[in-house]
């Protein structure tokens, strides 16, 4: 049986759903449960240049019958390293009826990518967040509600997982194909290991060993970018230091000069003999 309050909430949420469809919010999609507009599910696409960049984060919104005069509860379902999962995160302290589903989700996403402690937040390293981001696609595929409400995302996830699997197969069958991006990723793993040794998994260590073996078996495949990545790894520097970048490039130039001199000397000896 519906009540005036329920009708008010239903009308408001139907209006907000149309707003969301007509004016999509960056990194956010949301759908109500069919037959129950008081329960919505949303998905965040991890923004670029954040630890969440490779992830998809599924959650839900539960609205009270007197919405918008009372705040909804937000739940995060996908493990993310920032918020507790399956725990209601209420907005009552800062709630105002002028807020809507688009503004609620946009605000929640902005809080997610921050580091400031807040209600329901948890502590984790950036490495752990990146690991969870990579695992989020498979996690979401195991959720029936996610698959029912977001079929287009399910298709995209399957394509992405197949692409990752193909890259992994190529890397294992052809270790010489390791790129500077991969070496930089391994440098990042080692930096995380130094700051938080418990966070590095055996899979990451094994992959790191593969990269090192590839470099040893085929040193010609290592470019100047690869050398810079390895130097950043050894000395714990990042790209934000122009002085370090200059020194690194100078080392690379000197290294190639020494190598060229040695090759020239060996060839001269051979032809002399």
TrEMBL record:
UniProt xrefs under InterPro entries: Ub_conjugating_enzyme (IPR050113), UBC (IPR000608), UBQ-conjugating_enzyme/RWD (IPR016135)
Domain of life: Eukaryota
Transmembrane regions: 247-267
Compositional bias of kind Basic and acidic residues: 163-172, 182-194, 204-213
Domain UBC core: 8-152
Keywords annotated in UniProt: Membrane, Transmembrane, Transmembrane helix
PROSITE patterns: UBC_2
Residues making up the signal peptide according to the UniProt record: none
CDD domains: UBCc_UBE2J
Region of interest: Disordered: 163-223
Keyword Iron-sulfur: no
PANTHER family in alphabetical order: UBIQUITIN-CONJUGATING ENZYME E2
The protein's name in its UniProt record: Ubiquitin-conjugating enzyme E2 J2
Organism listed in the record: Zootermopsis nevadensis
């Amino acid at each position: 049986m519906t009540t005036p309050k329920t009708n008010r909430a239903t009308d408001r949420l139907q209006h907000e759903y149309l707003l969301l469809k007509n004016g999509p919010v960056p990194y956010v999609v949301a759908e109500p449960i069919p037959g129950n507009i008081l329960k919505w599910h949303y998905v965040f696409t991890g923004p670029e240049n954040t630890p969440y960049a490779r992830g998809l984060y599924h959650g839900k919104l539960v609205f009270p019958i007197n919405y918008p005069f009372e705040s909804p509860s937000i739940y995060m379902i996908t493990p993310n390293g920032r918020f507790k999962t399956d725990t209601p995160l209420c907005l009552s302290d800062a709630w105002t009826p002028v807020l809507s589903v688009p503004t609620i989700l946009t605000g929640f996403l902005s809080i997610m990518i921050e580091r400031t402690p807040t209600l329901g937040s948890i502590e984790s390293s950036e490495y752990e967040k990146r690991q969870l981001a990579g695992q989020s696609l498979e996690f979401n595929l195991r959720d029936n509600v996610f698959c029912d409400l977001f079929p287009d995302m399910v298709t995209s996830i399957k394509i992405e997982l197949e692409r990752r699997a193909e890259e992994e197969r190529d890397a294992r069958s052809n270790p010489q194909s390791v790129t500077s991006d991969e070496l930089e990723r391994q440098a990042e793993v080692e930096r995380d290991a130094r700051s938080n040794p418990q966070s590095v998994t055996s899979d990451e260590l094994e992959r790191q060993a593969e990269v090192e073996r590839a470099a040893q078996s085929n040193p010609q495949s290592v470019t100047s970018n690869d050398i810079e990545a390895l130097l950043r790894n050894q000395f714990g520097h990042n790209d934000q230091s122009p002085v370090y970048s200059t020194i690194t490039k100078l080392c690379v130039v000197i290294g190639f000069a020494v190598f060229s001199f040695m090759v020239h000397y060996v060839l001269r000896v051979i032809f002399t003999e």
